[in-house]
Amino acid sequence: MNDILLPLLLAIAAALYSAVGHGGASGYLAVFALLGLAPASLRPAALALNVAVASLASVQYIRRFGSFPKLLWPLLAGSVPPAFIGGRLPVDATLIKLLIGTTLVTAAVRLLTAHREVTHLREPAAWILFLLGMVLGLLSGLTGIGGGVFLSPIFILMSWALVRESSAVVAPFILANSLSGLIGALSSGAQLPNQFGWWLLAVIIGGFAGSTWGARHGSPLLVNAVLALVLVIAGVKLLLT
């Protein structure tokens, strides 16, 4: 039964996450845990699936809203090396998961209750983005997720970008950090499971559908609600697994 249910749930997770410019790794890990698989051992698979879906989301959102190099490049400069290191480190992350899970759920509640229109965007300093990238990159590699669930609420709540436009930064950030973390994990001897090809096909289908809807048709209010749901799923997953 898992041979059918697992790809289906992965496709649904990919569609949901890619609708807000995310790759879906935390959702994939939640699916693995739900079906009785060991999420820690499947961290490289989650990162690899993240690379595929974040690639689709990057194309869709950058094509729709353009690129934001002043925001993206300092983040990438700070995050990619720590993501590689985090991907190589052994994970005994009970405390990290507790802290991150609580943070994500809190951010989701904040997004849902902060009913305000952004009238003036603030441009963060490059050094702030660099330091933020370092922290998120390390967390990305350690936890096996791309970092978008951390970055999106920060961008929105700090008024650094509008809801949908932020995905044009978040998606390539996830792509770069997932790829760096994946290379780190594979270089330390991790392997992808035999069924990975079917999982990859499933998330590509779901990711294309979700990112197309989010970039072209999703209203900011609805996308914000979807993002909050994504954060809750990711946070609960980290707290319970």
Structure commentary:
With 241 residues, the protein is mainly alpha-helical. The protein has one domain. It contains ten helices and no strands. 55% of the residues are buried.
Structure, briefly:
It is found in: Cell membrane; Membrane. The protein is an all-alpha fold. It is built from ten helices and no strands.
The largest sheet, given as strand count, sense and whether it forms a barrel, is:
none
Percent of residues in helices comes to over 70%
Instruction: Give the beta-strand count.
Output: 0
Spatial extent as radius of gyration: 16 Å
State the end-to-end distance. 22 Å
SSE run = HHHHHHHHHH
Helix-strand makeup class: mainly alpha
Strand content: under 5%
* Count of alpha and pi helical runs: 10
Q: Determine the mean pLDDT.
A: 82
Tell me the number of structural domains. 1
| Unreliable runs | none
Shape: globular
